[in-house]
Amino acid sequence: MSDDDDFMQDSDQEEYDFEYEDDDEEQGGDVDIENKYYNAKQMKGDNPEEAVDEFLGVPALEEEKGDWGFKGLKQAIKLEFKLKRYNKAVEHYQELLTYVKSAVTRNYSEKSINNMLDFIEKDAEDADAHRCMEKFYALTLESFQSTNNERLWLKTNIKLAKLWLERKDYRQLADKVRELHKSCQKEDGTDDPSKGTYSLEIYSLEILMYAETRNTKRLKALYQRALKVRSAVPHPKIMGIIRECGGKMHMSEENWKEAQSDFFESFKNYDEAGSLQRIQVLKYLVLTTMLMGSDINPFDSQETKPYKTDPRISAMTDLVDAYQRDDIHSYEKILQNNKDLLADPFIAENIDEVTRNMRTKAVLKLVAPYTRFTLAFISKQLKISLLEVQDIVSFLIVDKKLHGKMDQHHGTVEVESHTDMDRVQAMREWSAAIGSLWATVLNDGEGFKSDESGGQYSSMGGEGQASQRMSWNPNVVGPKAGKAKGKGLAGRLPSAGSKG
Fold first, then answer.
1. What does each C-alpha distance from 378 to 187, 362, 391 come to in angstroms?
2. Which tens digits make up the pLDDT trace of 121-163?
3. DSSP string covering 52-109, please?
4. Where are the beta strands (DSSP E) in 209-329?
5. Residues near 134 by Cβ (< 8 Å), separated by ≥ 6?
6. Among 3, 5, 298, 302, fewest CB within 10 Å belongs to which?
7. Of 353, 354, 282, nearest to 324 (Cα)?
8. CA separation for the pair 56, 69 (Å, rounded)
């Protein structure tokens, strides 16, 4: 909140008295205080140290604690925090809290304190500033506990929980989150619908904690519970956090489709909130698209299209373009020239899978015309290490995407052609068919059995008539036998192209 906002908000609380004749002395006093306050404001930019002293002089001019003294202390504390005078800031903040019980209205004091805490949260840059923040929160909780201001108590505790999350103090954070959940529940242990907005914010902190500690089981349960909260009208940034963590959870389970859906929802929420995190989540969305192997461009949607040419996202845009074109050389070059992408641990962890997919496809494409190749050839063409080439080729052979045998000692691979394998299989079937036919002919064919008389020919006669039946004896070699043999087999043997 700006200083002018403070003034306007303060003015709304004032009651003006138009009985001038009895008010000259008091009016003069107020003018002096006001002039001192605004004189200090003019000094803020050029001489903040003197401005602090001027602001601290405002409360001393009031006979009783009032609005001007409250505002003067606020300005002094903000400047002291910026100047890194943390001990003085804490001292004067403690004095400021004495005004909230009687000198200013409850609503105005609550808004002012909350804005003060927001201010120091945004300006905290080092460990000393964080320790100062923690003291501010402790003093606030102590002060408002006696006034029974539950709303400010919740807001301050949530800010304290955020501080512990940032410091990765998970033990204190877990205790605080448990306490906050209890305060947002009814007596039967169910979530209080009237505090749904606070519940979602607490869930978001707990989800972030379990995402950072990689407790996927607990994270999944909390994520599902958070999505069931219907009584809240949460800030879109809170839903952006919840959805982002959900996307990361699904990614760890290799559930690319659900991850893509959550990242898209997270992006929309961050975009609505005006949060810069939308850019990072958009990178996650592009990453997921590549892992899915999808041909759909993630920048085709109405929400993401305006960011397609954003320089902050251009590297990921180029990556997905190279991926969808199977252009391994462009892909590797983009990664090499944009190493800052890997500064994000989540991208660094998952981009390896995308890169491996790209290299695997490139290897298959490269060796397609060959029946024999060396690992060194692949390494040189794709500009990757021999060890990685060996790993990829081994995977392809085990996964039966490449039919061949690898000689690790000599670094060579012999590829078995599908055509050769089919030809060998056909020959095997043809040979089996011939063997089966030959056995049938010899064992069961009547034309190949000798008669019981055992002679070369036998005659059967009847009453004045003679009839002859010719039989072939395989033991007899002669023109007739040869002709019978050739003729008998010619019509029954399968052709070379037959599979039986």
1. 67, 9, 12
2. 887 777 888 888 889 888 888 877 666 677 888 888 888 898 8
3. HHHHHHHHHH-SS--HHHHHHHHHHHHHHHHTT-HHHHHHHHHHHGGGTTTTS-HHHH
4. none
5. 160, 163
6. 302
7. 354
8. 8
Residue with tokens 């892992």: 291
Which pair of tokens denotes residue 6? 């403070």
Give the end-to-end CA distance of the chain in Å, rounded to a whole number.
Answer: 90
Q: Which of 22, 19, 92, 34 is nearest to 66 (CA)?
A: 34
Alpha carbon distance 303, 264 (integer Å): 9
Report pLDDT digits (tens) over 367-410. Answer: 888 888 888 888 888 888 888 888 888 888 888 888 888 888 88
pLDDT digits (tens, 9 = 90+) for 177-224: 898 888 888 877 777 878 888 888 899 999 999 988 888 888 888 888
Outline where DSSP puts E strands in 127-213: none
Name the least confident of 14-28, 41-55, 412-426: 14-28
Pair 241, 267: CB distance under 8 Å? no
Which DSSP letter does residue 417 get?
A: P
Q: pLDDT-based confidence at 422, cuts 50/70/90?
A: low
Integer-rounded Cα radius of gyration of the chain:
43
Burial class, 344, CB count within 10 angstroms (exposed 0-12 / middle 13-18 / buried 19+): middle
* Domain definitions of the chain by residue range: 1-166
- E strand residue ranges, 189-233: none
**E strands, 313-385, where?**
372-374
Token digits of residue 400: 């039966």
Distance CA 233, CA 169 (A): 29
Q: What is the tens place of the pLDDT at every residue in 398-415?
A: 888 888 888 888 888 888
* Assigned CATH for 1-166: 1.25.40
- The three-state secondary structure class of 171 is helix
pLDDT exceeds 50 at position 456: no
CA distances from 189 to 102, 157, 455 (A): 36, 20, 107
What does the pLDDT read at residue 124? 79
User: Burial, 423: exposed, middle or buried (Cβ in 10 Å; 0-12, 13-18, 19+)?
Assistant: exposed
At residue 185, what are phi and psi to the nearest 5 degrees? Answer: -115, 160
